[in-house]
Amino acid sequence: MAKIDFALWDAVGGYSGSEESMADVYDEHIRLAQELDEAGWHSYFVIEHQNSPIGRITAPSIFLTAVARATKQLRIGAMMWQLPFYHPIRLAQEVAMLDQLSRGRVEFGTGIGVHEHEFIRWGVDFYQRAAISGEVLDIVRMAWSGNEVTFKGKYFTFDEALPQPLPYQKPHPPIWAAVHSDAAIEFAARNNFHVAQNLDTDEVVARKFDLFRKIWRECNHAGPMPRVFLQRQIHVAETDEKAHAEARQFLATREGGAVPVGGGRLDHTRIGWGTHARGMGRDSERPSDKARGEVIFKAARSYEFTLEQGLAVVGSPETVIRILTESQQRIGYDIFCANHEIGLMPKDQVRNSIRLMSKEVLPAFR
After folding, report:
1. What is the CATH number of domain 5-365?
2. What are phi and psi of 42, to 5 degrees?
3. How close are the terminal C-alpha atoms of the chain, in Å?
4. What is the mean pLDDT of the segment spanning 125-147?
């Protein structure tokens, strides 16, 4: 059986009740990270969202610093830090400081963001987000090089900036690109970045990861091939019957989807989800984004479709081991990132699923 490293994707109580104290929510999830650390998980990831009802992690570096100081071996990161929203030197310094405080356990996940309303509310041009992100990432890498940063671009200008500290890891923390489009995959391959995916069906993900490996080889990069990360929703219970009974009522729902768009509290705000019902402005009509939107729409309405397309994994430990073995052979990922917090699923079911994953699934792939 092939080795797989396991990461946990933590929504940090994204759909938990508003009556809960955020201090209590953060403490609860820091304790969860400690349990993962003790159980031998490889890594722990959160995601940044701004202007969002589920935006419990609006400052990933701060939350992950608390996680770092409460754990010993667990690697930590955001998948992703939303690059267009950052001052690049400050981002470089924040992540480098986190890397120092964790003694070299940071995974630097990067992305451009997909929800138009988040950009409108901050006065950032949604349609320039890729170009802005390119400059941010260039400057972050310069800041981590150990040299002064002098840079004149379209969005940022620096004259002999002197960033401190440098990262603990040399030359810098692993850089991940959260990729969906073929253009993003090509960008990651040419820059020798690690790649992460979470929204497409298994068939589409397999094609895109094959494309990544093909372009990467054509670039003749030195060193080992970058790592490949797949995130999926997952629910484990003692038997298949129990797992499906628990997951069915929460998975094929608006909140149960990986990226719920439309409806909810934002529908009652002046800006709402932006200029398009699918939340991505005119990008919503691009062929690849439109196809992905149709998949998300079907997954929110059909439990069977969600499982058949590989968007979620549900079953007993034995069944989950079999499904992961087969999907790993077909897709070729080496990090599986498990999202156990499915919509409004009760905490006791979520925690039991994580415990079974730790105790019975992870050992099968070591």
Report:
1. 3.20.20.30
2. -75, -45
3. 9
4. 97
